[in-house]
Design goal:
heterodimer; A: about 325 residues; mainly alpha; MetI-like fold; 2 domains; about 80% helix; about 0% strand; flat; B: mainly alpha; 13 helices; about 70% helix; transmembrane helix (chain A); membrane (chain A); cell membrane (chain A); MetI-like (chain A); transport (chain A)
Chain lengths: ~325, ~290
């Protein structure tokens, strides 16, 4: 087990190095590189620019600059926002809560609903329910999330007036009920795609398990059907869902960004778009690297957790 | 057994695939819808008396089915149907061209990684893993914001964020096909590595590649619509399904049809490509069929 974890950790570290190299390359893609902000403003002469370039060490060879940048990132020095001078990590952490709240709510809805749909679909394969669920999932995966958000706003806010059209709370209110009221629409919109994904994976995982020999053995022993399903089938069918959770993470994060932009939800996605608008490159890069790291850690945790609950993995 | 009976049993692989595909009614419907969308955007604008960029401020916000403008007009009095068709040209082309680019990169990377394995394979596949760590939409938006927007940039950037899944599929296929007799035979004939890779191995992996390509178009259309909706993709006055939704949110209360038409077009196109990909998966390789 320790060997497996160490192995997996080393892989993740290597990936982090490549991820950071990609991030560094993107940063230097910006017109004028990291100094573009000053170059665009026009308030600095070429001499000033040259001086700042030397001061910030941007005239050094790229590999040296990269090592320096990577070292500072590991130490938590991610630079400062052009907009208000706050450190990038401060800005990100002040928006992280809203995004996590949205992601967690959508995930809970999607896991419960998706697993239920998947299990029923697998048990009653090719039934009307299964067919509708399969076709519905495909359509749910095809609807652009931002447009679905717009439709939701039109129906439930503009026409029916049941739900607020955006934001996380009413100014001056902010009670628990008010927060929940604002959370419903963006969470459901984000949950739509996730539910479809979970339903599909759960269905195929369950189908695979109920055709195994040990299920037939359990039936042959005369075990009651509900006990076969809950104790034997479901427990094993849920295992691969841990991997699915890890794999789903980037999609979930991307979906949260999309939902946030439509519902003006004050999370990381909204911050990302605002920062792009202000050409606040340190924050843009910060969020890009931060989200990549979240994905890396997410898949690492999923793999380790899987190895903990399923001993077969550790040997391979 | 008569020869007629035999001939119905022995179908060529192509005929068998067509049979399986035909049974997949939703995939068939998807193919028909795609055809209609492509023909509609290609030929439709010639049949319509309105130009997609002609501004008629006196006739702004005309609702659908209320007069000469079948789908109504937008905030500048431009005909929505004309914009939908011209936007379809842009959105569908961006989707298909981005797919071709992503396929080219993915196939080359996957073929080299799968064929050579070892250090080359490990480095290439770790690169694939690393790019996959970035949520696609974040990566695409950051790149789009740093570059000059336009149809070509948008297409290239979408391809740059979509080639990894293809590389993974091709790598796995090539790695296993490499050991098969026909590949070993080609090597014994003295064929060059490049020839074996791209004339022997990749063509034998064509079934999963075609499926991935179809699903890739759907993904590319979705990505284009989102970047353009946010204003970092196709720039007005040119229309795309995404940028038509750009202003729709502001007029959601007074002119909801501006949001409905382009959104339905995107959903229809993406659903059709997804169903088509699903049907092709069943048809081309029954073993790939996920139960």
């Amino acid at each position: 087990m320790a060997r497996y974890v160490a192995n997996r950790l080393a892989q993740a570290m290597m990936l982090l190095v490549i991820v950071s190299a990609i991030g560094f390359a993107i940063l230097h893609l910006a017109p004028g590189g990291p100094l573009s902000q000053f170059a665009v403003s026009g308030q600095m002469t070429q001499e000033d620019l040259d001086r700042v370039t030397r001061q910030l060490g941007l005239d050094r060879p790229l590999p040296i600059q990269y090592l320096d940048w990577f070292g500072r990132m590991l130490k938590g020095d991610w630079g400062k926002s052009y907009r208000d001078g706050e450190t990038v990590l401060t800005v990100i952490s002040s928006h992280l809560g809203a995004t996590l709240e949205l992601m967690a709510t959508a995930t809970i809805i999607a896991v419960l609903l998706g697993c239920w749909i998947g299990i029923i679909g697998a048990l009653r394969r090719y039934s009307l329910f299964d067919t509708l669920a399969t076709v519905g999932a495909m359509i749910a995966l095809s609807i652009p999330t931002f447009w679905f958000g717009l439709v939701t706003i039109y129906v439930f806010s503009v026409k029916l007036g049941w739900l607020p059209a955006g934001n996380r709370e009413t100014v001056g209110d902010g009670s628990f009920l008010d927060l929940m009221h604002h959370l419903i629409a963006p969470a459901l919109v984000l949950a739509l795609v996730e539910t479809a994904m979970w339903g599909r994976f759960m269905r195929s995982s369950m189908l695979e398990v109920i055709n195994q020999d040990y299920i037939r053995t359990a039936r042959a022993k005369g075990m009651p059907e509900w006990r076969i399903l809950t104790v034997h089938a479901l427990r094993n069918a849920l295992l691969p869902m841990i991997t699915v959770a890890g794999l789903q993470f980037p999609t979930l994060l991307g979906g949260a960004l999309v939902a946030e932009t439509v519902f003006t939800w004050p999370g990381m996605g909204r911050l990302f778009l605002d920062s792009i608008g202000y050409r606040d490159y340190p924050v843009v890069m910060g969020i890009l690297m931060f989200s990549a790291m979240m994905v890396l850690i997410g898949s690492l945790l999923a793999d380790i957790f899987y190895a903990v609950v399923d001993p077969r993995i550790r040997v391979g | 057994m008569t020869s007629a009976a035999l001939s119905t049993v022995h179908l060529t692989p192509g005929q068998a695939a067509w049979r399986r595909f035909r049974r997949h009614r939703l995939a068939l419907a998807g193919a028909v819808i795609i055809l209609v969308l492509v023909l509609g955007s290609a030929l439709g604008p010639y049949l319509l008396p309105f130009d997609d960029t002609y501004i008629d401020i006196m006739k702004r916000f005309a609702p659908p089915f209320s007069g000469a403008h079948i789908l109504g007009t937008d905030e500048l009095g431009r005909d929505v149907l004309a914009r939908l068709m011209m936007g379809g040209r842009v959105s569908l082309s961006v989707g298909i061209v981005a797919m071709v680019m992503a396929m080219a990169v993915g196939i080359v990377v996957g073929a080299f990684a799968g064929f050579y394995g070892g250090v080359v394979g490990a480095v290439l596949m770790r690169l694939v893993d690393a790019v996959l760590c970035f949520p696609t939409i974040f990566l695409l938006l950051a790149l789009a914001a740093l570059t000059e927007p336009g149809p070509v940039t948008t297409t290239v950037l979408i391809a740059a964020t979509a080639w990894m899944s293809v590389a993974r599929i091709v790598e796995a296929q090539v790695r296993s096909l490499r050991e098969r007799e026909f590949a070993v035979a080609a090597l014994a004939f003295g064929s060059s590595n490049l020839r074996i890779m791209f004339r022997e191995l990749v063509p034998n992996a064509i079934a999963p590649i075609v499926v991935a390509a179809t699903l890739n178009v759907a993904q590319a259309i979705l990505l284009e619509s989102y970047v353009s909706y946010l204003g970092y993709g196709i720039q007005p006055p040119a229309a795309s399904w995404g940028n038509m939704l750009n202003n729709a949110q502001i007029y959601l209360t007074s002119a909801p049809w501006l949001a409905i038409a382009p959104g339905l077009a995107i959903t229809l196109a993406v659903t059709s490509f997804n169903f088509l990909g699903d049907g092709l998966r069943d048809a081309l390789d029954p073993r790939m069929n996920i139960p």
